[in-house]
């Protein structure tokens, strides 16, 4: 499924209602452009993930390897995440596979080294934390464009980006994790650079996602680092693509785009063995 990430009596009243409808159509058009942003056929990156307590201390630091592939014909993506290292040794070699499906729940499996077993993640577990992070399994998944209504609220600057601000409200509230989401979408790239997710229970602000750095690599606009914060608990998760040094001491980003990755990587067998 696609992620959209991420809605009377007097003439004056009628004019206001018409303007609102136009904004809703504009909001949908913005999100549709977000979905149509060019994607690499393959991506392979090394990532640092920090789980950060309310007081700012790092509870756990992880080194993650991520493989991804995108099928342009079906417009679906698959991803494999491997915990190569962690300050919590019990999490080392945790592996996760997600295979995107159109008009259906995504397939997800996780390998837990303590159990030495791969298990399927059921759709009923969507609101559970993904390996102790501030993201849930549903956050890892995606939404179809028409799963939500999209309303263009305004246009404004956000963290140095000139943005469209779009509110996305679920059409079927019972199947959605949040009451609604508001995204700040960079006009130049159509990449969401900031987002707010609102609590389904009482409509209060629940989570905030901030893209700290956006970089164009090989014609693709890649969020190089971002922070997801649960504002109700104060806990946050930061992920950033790491760097290495070349022979001349120059910093190189640990990300490779459009280099084919073997199909075997995106299988349960690979999840079980890591090879």
From TrEMBL:
Record flagged with keyword RNA-binding: no
Lineage of source species: Bacteria, Pseudomonadati, Spirochaetota, Spirochaetia, Spirochaetales
Gene3D superfamilies (alphabetical): Lipoprotein localisation LolA/LolB/LppX (2.50.20.10)
Record's keyword terms, sorted: Signal
Location of the Uncharacterized protein TP-0789 domain: 92-272
Native organism: Treponema socranskii subsp. socranskii VPI DR56BR1116 = ATCC 35536
Name of the protein in question: PF07044 domain protein
InterPro entries tied to this protein: TP_0789-like (IPR033399)
Entry superkingdom: Bacteria
Cleaved signal peptide residues: 1-24
Comp. bias (Polar residues): 122-134
Keyword hit for Transmembrane: no
Region entry Disordered, spans: 122-141
């Amino acid at each position: 499924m696609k992620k959209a990430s991420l809605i009377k009596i007097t003439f004056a009243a009628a004019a206001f209602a018409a303007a609102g409808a136009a904004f809703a159509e504009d909001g949908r058009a913005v999100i549709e452009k977000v979905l149509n942003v060019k994607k690499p056929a393959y991506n392979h990156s090394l990532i640092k993930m920090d789980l950060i307590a309310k007081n700012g201390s790092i509870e756990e630091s992880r080194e993650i390897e991520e493989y991804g592939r995108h099928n342009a014909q079906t417009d679906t993506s698959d991803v494999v995440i491997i915990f190569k290292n962690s300050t919590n040794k019990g999490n080392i070699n945790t592996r996760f596979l997600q295979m995107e499906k159109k008009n259906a729940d995504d397939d997800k499996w996780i390998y837990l080294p303590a159990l030495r077993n791969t298990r399927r993640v059921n759709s009923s577990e969507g609101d559970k934390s993904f390996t102790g992070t501030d993201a849930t399994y549903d956050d890892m998944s995606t939404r179809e464009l028409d799963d939500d209504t999209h309303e263009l609220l305004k246009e404004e600057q956000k963290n140095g980006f000139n943005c469209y601000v779009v509110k996305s409200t679920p059409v079927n509230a019972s199947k959605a994790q949040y009451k609604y989401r508001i995204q700040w979408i960079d006009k130049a790239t159509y990449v969401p650079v900031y987002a707010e997710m609102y609590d389904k229970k009482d409509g209060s602000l629940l989570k905030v996602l901030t893209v700290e750095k956006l970089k164009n690599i090989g014609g693709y606009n890649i969020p190089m680092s971002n922070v997801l914060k649960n504002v109700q608990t104060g806990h946050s998760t930061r992920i950033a693509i790491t760097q290495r040094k070349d022979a001349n001491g120059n910093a190189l980003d640990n990300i490779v785009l459009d280099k084919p990755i073997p199909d075997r990587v995106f299988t349960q067998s690979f999840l079980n063995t890591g090879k």
